[in-house]
Amino acid sequence: MHILSIIRIIGILVMCFSGAMLLPAFVALIYGDGGGKAFMQAFILSLMFGVLLWWPCHHHKQELRSRDGFLIVVAFWFVLGGLATLPLLLLDTLHLTVASAVFEAFSGLTTTGATVMTGLDNLPKALLFYRQLLQWLGGMGIIVLAIAIIPLLGIGGMQLYRAEMSGPMKEQKIRPRIAETAKMLWGIYFSLTISCALAYWLAGMEPFDALTHSFSTVSIGGFSTHDASMGYFNSPLINGITVLFLLISACNFGLHFRAFSTIGRENFVKIYLRDPEFRFFISTQIILVALCSFIMWNHSYFSSSWQDFEQVLFQAVSISTTTGYTTSDFTTWPSFVPVLLILASFMGGCAGSVGGGVRVARVLVLYLQGKRELKRVVHPNLVYPIKWGKTVLDDRVIGSIWAFFSAYLLVFLVCLLGVIACGVEPFDAFNAVLACLNNLGPALGSVSGNMMAIPDSAKWILTVAMVCGRLEIFTLLALFTPAFWKA
């Protein structure tokens, strides 16, 4: 294992991330409501730390192997989360404990959206911008961004890409060179962000809110600059824009690239419709919205059927894609609806998207395998391959999905027992772990609004759960196997 090369790369990435501290400092300069000093101090400390990591090892440029990539990804996420905590601790107005500050920073970077803060409307604009920026950077993955913009890394990059990207089919490359792939992904990501910000602004948001909410919308993060979340704007048009961009961001970004790169040569709509995961994802969204709308109409919860549908549409897409935006307190709705929405968050977004959960692709493959096993009960000798479109899936892919579910369940149970041991009631502990492991944010019970009531000891466990969810468990668990460290 090339430890010195790994340290060198982490140092470069940390130095690059330190530049992100300058943007909130600039926002503080514009609005003059405080926070600039804390972010400048955090920038200097982060930059110095990066230099200290990089300089002693700057001559070491060995080619990375697969396990080196995994170690860089995990180490960088934890180092980055620690450095992202600095402004939260240096700001005089917050008075957060170390555990709460770490939890908030990791919640942003992992696009979880769970928070320990209240009174957001009165906080400095620089801090609000910083929280949203963390989600935007974490959405596509800072590692991929670094590979795209730092050619001086001197590595092929595929090892980092495989460790960072989500989904069961992440070994499929969109292009042969990872730098081109990363640039393409971020090009799509950046274009969606600008489009979303313009749409919000034209719909009536202030420029600051439009930009910051585009960060958390396209990243499927869920942070807001207001305590009332998207309900603060009370606008059906803004809600509709949010739903549209959440659905786009919850789809596979590789699919977006393939679709828009063929405009003029092929009907790009057909590319989406031919994708099994996309069809399954949209179908489940339609069924979820229809079922929840029927329940709300039956209870006449809001003043009109249209309002029932509008609120259900927004909340169903927001929760099922693991965003966590709210327009009202959905936990007070007829109990069937919030429970169904929380369960839907387990599926989350598509593979290769910025959403959380176990991924639509995995759920679809298990559904197809279930159909096959039912047929085999009737016809034991039947040869019935599982197809992904026109491609027959290898049994190794199916086995890896079952392995993922086993690891997911193991991590969930360990975190659940740990949080309960910290003194949290079982129901609240279940919802807190669910919200963090699925990178969802809000849940039911006392954690429906924020995580302030969770003790600091439990916040450390939940922080690890967020990272596990963001790195899809195996990337982190691989470090705890003896085989990983053998030469």
Fraction of residues in helix: 55-70%
How much is the radius of gyration in Å? 22 Å
What structural class is derived from the secondary structure elements? Answer: mainly alpha
Output the helix-strand order: HHHHHHHHHHHHHHHHHHEEHHHHH
Give the rounded overall mean pLDDT: 87
* Overall geometric form: globular
Q: Tell me the span between the first and last alpha carbons.
A: 7 Å
Kindly state the number of beta strands.
2
Please provide a written account of the structure.
The chain crosses the membrane at residues 12-32, 38-57, 69-90, 133-161, 182-203, 237-257, 278-297, 339-368, 397-421, 460-485. K(+) binds at residues 111-112, 220-221, 322-323, 439-440. Keywords: Cell inner membrane, Cell membrane, Ion transport, Membrane, Metal-binding, Potassium, Potassium transport, Transmembrane, Transmembrane helix, Transport. The chain is globular. The longest helix has 27 residues, at 395-421. It starts with a helix and ends with a helix. Residues 147-156 have low confidence and may be disordered. It has helices at residues 3-18, 22-31, 36-54, 66-84, 86-90, 98-109, 125-140, 142-149, 158-164, 178-202, 207-218, 236-249, 253-260, 268-274, 276-299, 305-320, 336-344, 360-378, 395-421, 426-437, 456-470, 474-477, 482-485, and strands at 387-388, 391-392. The chain has a domain at 395-485. By secondary structure, it is mostly helical. The protein has a two-stranded antiparallel sheet with strand order 1-2. It contains 23 helices and two strands. Helices cover 63% and strands 1% of the residues.
